[in-house]
Specification:
This protein is mainly alpha-helical. The protein is built from ten helices and two strands, in the order ααβαααααβααα.
Length: about 260
């Protein structure tokens, strides 16, 4: 009798989890349809309502050719430099992240690719747990199978959170630089890409300390990749483009996972 009761309890506990994992979105609709909202946007709006505030967020869709290439090149180099080579998961970076977390004795960094971040942004809660990570992986595989890399990047740039109540490249560009995303300079594109690990905490205009160094290294990566012209009469060191982006100082780890 006790054994049967245990099995009943296990089934009751596991069925909702199993349904959560198999209830996956139809990512093929994204081939042509542009999303008008996202899970992260809905989550933030609900947060505002619970605090008695009126949600107000900005998001304007732009095709990839309407976004400065300086921005999307910088985003790829900062967030997922093997984006065009992997199938949704960057296993070498996952190993590096595991070493960093072990060294810091806490989960400070992950190794989420742009596709994984898109899966989370569009469909999942920002709250971390094992079931969410498993579902994120399943959605990531669907996105990679149903969409081109160019489309994944376009979706990412238009839906990613870029600050409080700011979603997508166009809204971010207008908010921080008072210009459309198509007109961003190399320095402005780099500045926006530099805050993506923690856009609600970091300031793209900051030039000192950790953020200054982060932008400097990303600028050097852009030069090394021939996305921007090298400075005149300036010889870059041989390590340029190889040095990792600096980790945030203690207390400023990204609350998400990159």
């Amino acid at each position: 009798m006790l054994k049967k009761l245990i099995w009943v309890v296990l089934i009751i506990a596991l069925v909702p989890s199993a349904w959560y994992l198999v209830d996956l979105p139809d990512t093929s609709t994204l081939v042509k349809a542009n999303p008008t909202t996202s899970a992260i946007r809905k989550f933030r709006e609900e947060e505002a309502r619970q605090k008695g505030k009126k949600p107000h967020s900005s998001m304007e869709w732009r095709n990839l050719d309407q976004i400065s290439p300086y921005l999307w090149h910088a985003v790829v180099l900062a967030e997922d430099d093997s984006f065009f080579q992997h199938n949704g998961f960057d296993f070498p970076q996952m190993k590096n992240a595991a070493r960093t977390n072990w060294r810091r004795k806490k989960f400070a960094f992950g190794a989420s690719t742009l596709t994984q971040q898109l899966a989370r942004t569009l469909y999942l809660s920002p709250k971390k747990n094992l079931l969410r990570k498993l579902k994120e992986a399943l959605i990531t595989r669907r996105l990679e199978k149903s969409l081109t890399k160019r489309r994944i990047l376009e979706l990412y740039l238009n839906t990613v959170e870029w600050g409080r109540e700011i979603y997508g490249a166009e809204a971010a560009s207008e908010f921080y630089f008072n210009k459309p995303a198509s007109d961003l300079s190399p320095e402005e594109g780099i500045a926006l890409a530099s805050i993506l690990p923690s856009p609600r905490k970091w300031d793209p205009h900051k030039e000192e300390g950790f953020m200054g160094r982060r932008k400097e290294i990303l600028y050097q990566r852009m030069v090394r990749a021939n996305y921007i012209a090298p400075p005149e009469n300036v010889e870059l060191p041989s390590t340029v483009g190889l040095e990792p982006l600096p980790e945030p100082p203690p207390g400023e780890e990204t609350p998400d996972e990159k």
